[in-house]
Amino acid sequence: MGKIMRKKRILITGGCGFIGSRVVQNLLATPHEVFVMDDLSSGHRSAIPEMLVDLKVCDIRSDAAQEYIKEIAPHFVIHLAAQIDVQVSLEQQQLDADINIMGTLNVMEACKELADFERFVFASSAAVYGNSTELPLMEDAAPMPISPYGMSKWMGEQYLELNNEMVDFPYCVLRFANVYGQKETGAKDVISDFWDKMIHEKSPIIHGDGEQTRDFVYVADIAEALILALNVRKNGIYNISTGEQTSINDVLSVMSDLLQVTVVPENRRNRIGDVRDSRLSNAKFQEVTGWRPQYTLAKGLEQMHLEKQEMVLVK
Ligand SMILES: NC(=O)c1ccc[n+]([C@@H]2O[C@H](COP(=O)([O-])OP(=O)(O)OC[C@H]3O[C@@H](n4cnc5c(N)ncnc54)[C@H](O)[C@@H]3O)[C@@H](O)[C@H]2O)c1
């Protein structure tokens, strides 16, 4: 958990979403005051304990968002609210840019006016690397996005860096690999998609031959990294990943063993905007914070299984 000892005000945009709600849960175990801004477009109110958190329902692009930030004057912002779906970004490029670039700017501009502002933590993505092929991907590799989503995330980073140069705006960018875990909301990732198909004994769809690889990082490790990032004193960009590369076919086989289901996948054409291989070095963040991923893919999937079973019991 974070090392900030004195009580601070922390705003989590997108705090009702998949990653954000985990961050909120973790922060509630600290002395800090937790604020959430979310338009509930994919997140749910019930994802956070509203009794303990101040929730502002609004769009990050709105005047209301600016006013709220000025009113609560957070010391830290963890900016997670975004359009996160690569396919949506291909179909609606303006919408994607509007939320991910203009929305980020709107939140950042409000923070710039706060006298006691300490750091802006921005959730970026491996999609920024795009066709950059030298693995493992290091933070100084040239960005080559191949989707509007990767482009809009990169632009968000660029505005933060520029404002740091211009007015010393304090920021920390975390580029996440492929995040997975039990989720009730948001865009389907490959693991939750496979999961839903497999438990209904349907064929999962694999785009391409299934030998493409990804670096899968468990959501609890991401939440932990976001909180540690509040203490990172050096402005800059950090990858958050396991540093392991797993093919989509291997994911399917680990899941088949875990769920005791055998299904034959349906192979379809490759999708535009998908990279062939991905693996990110996490050495830079490890060195600065001591963070280590606690979950291998097998362990993360087991944990996800447990959480899904608990959900069924609660319902
Ligand atoms: N999940 C991943 O694999 C992954 C990988 C890399 C980066 N990221 C980044 O992490 C962040 C969180 O992703 P997630 O997986 O939790 O997604 P999510 O969709 O579950 O959460 C996003 C939250 O933001 C809210 N939101 C969306 N647009 C908004 C707007 N205009 N104004 C206010 N709120 C808005 C949604 O209601 C939702 O609660 C995003 O910035 C995403 O780009 C995620």
Automatic annotation (TrEMBL):
The NAD-dependent epimerase/dehydratase domain extends over 10-240
Superkingdom of the source species: Bacteria
Protein family membership:
Belongs to the NAD(P)-dependent epimerase/dehydratase family.
Q: What protein name does the entry list?
A: NAD-dependent epimerase/dehydratase
Tell me which species this is from.
Listeria grandensis FSL F6-0971
